[in-house]
Amino acid sequence: MFTRLQKHLMKQCISFLLKKECFPLFVYFSVFILFFLIFENLVCHNLTGAEISIGDFLASSKNDLSLKNQEEKISFLHTTSPDTPFLDRVEFRTRTDEGFDQSNQRYSLRFYPNGLGETKAGEKVHNTTVESNKVHYDLLLHQALKERYTLIINVLNTLDLLELKKKLMVVYEDKAIVLNSQMNTPDFKITELIDAKDDVVKLQIEIIELENKLNTIEETMRLCISTEGSISLSRENLADTDSVRRSFLQISSLPDAENVYLRDSNYSKEIARGMYELEKAEGKRYINFLEAGYDNEEGGRPSDSISFGLGINLPFVRSNRIDVNRRKLQFLSAKGEHEDLKRSLEEKLRSISGELNKMFRQYDVLMEEKTTGGTESTLKKYMETEGINPITLLNMQESIIKKDLLIMQKQYEIYTKYIEYLDISGQLTKTPVRNYLSQDFEQIEL
After folding, report:
1. What tens digit of pLDDT does each residue of 350-368 get?
2. Has residue 35 got a pLDDT over 60?
3. Given strand 87-96, what is the order of strands in its sheet?
4. Neighbours of 15 (CB within 10 A)
5. What's the burial of 442, exposed, middle or buried (CB within 10 Å: 0-12/13-18/19+)?
6. How does DSSP assign 253-303, residue by residue?
7. What's the CA gap between 361 and 375, in Å, rounded?
8. pLDDT tens across 69-92, in order?
9. In terms of Cα–Cα distance, which of 438, 440, 439 is closest to 59?
10. Is the pLDDT score of 422 beyond 60?
11. pTM of the predicted model, to two decimals?
């Protein structure tokens, strides 16, 4: 909490204040220290924020706001049921004849049965709708997890960019200082000094943009885990490029049946199919109604007061043909969209696979150049010689930093494309769910 110097000064102050003549001041000082400690613990600690692991941040997907509404839908659907079995509706009817004479009142109860297979089709639509909403919950969870992967990659990339850009800024500033000091020498070129100062200004602008981007990303991350404090991601156990490469080679380049995008699309197709079958079943209501009536006309026998009625729909006259055709077209459209999605996912996976293989080769070239290219070893040998040209030295340092920038950027491009590949393939939320940015692909509890 305090530095060694602060502790020493505090001890000196307390020793002085404990003297008899200064004792009242000691009381005030103690109260001040007490309030300071409370403030530091409750306020300042929140400002610094705690370090959070990548796995814990990914696990926060299960608390994403988009899942709350979907949970409510699923809960509601579990409390509902399909239409009343066998009957569409029931009507109670009454009729008064001869001037509203209550003694000539007629009562009837009319039943409207469902069509052949309508009850079964209705149950199928209901059950499919429930399962569809469960799968859509999985899709929302998948998307929430992907969003967090993207945020992690972006924030780590931005932090590394800032670190290297600031190192480069030191080189540029030193170069401008050296060139300015050589203004009166024969080899001085004003254009080199102008270029050096321009490089400093351009880099300052880039750093400001990166800092602003970092603040924006961190704000989004705070919303994801519902905190107001700052966030610091732990890089411990972060997967390197070779681990990503090994994982990528083990994943199939074709989406399987458990792919969450295909499952969601398939249930949309099945709901459309169910609605089409339900509409067809409604057209098979050959019995329009069944009716039982009672006429309380005075003077009549009770057996003469009871009547039964039957209404039959003629099978060659169907009133819902347009609706059946519309449902058929909706089913065919959903079926076509599902097949299009399957082909699209396959094409995207092949395309991303090719891009990743290209990126791995590019990364290997950059690493080979870094390790065997000789820039760093040349710089060390050059620094051991006498009469070092400072501009040459700074140019070599600039070259090394720029190569590190290229390597770092390529590494994060690989991370981004790798997560995209896992997303399209459906691997992100394939059980057991794992942290694919960790070295050992640790399991995540969702």
Report:
1. 999 999 999 999 999 999 8
2. no
3. 87-96, 105-113, 287-295, 306-312
4. 9
5. middle
6. SS--TT-HHHHHHHHHHHHHHHHHHHHHHHTT--EEEEEEEEE--TTS-HH
7. 21
8. 999 999 999 888 776 567 777 888
9. 438
10. yes
11. 0.78
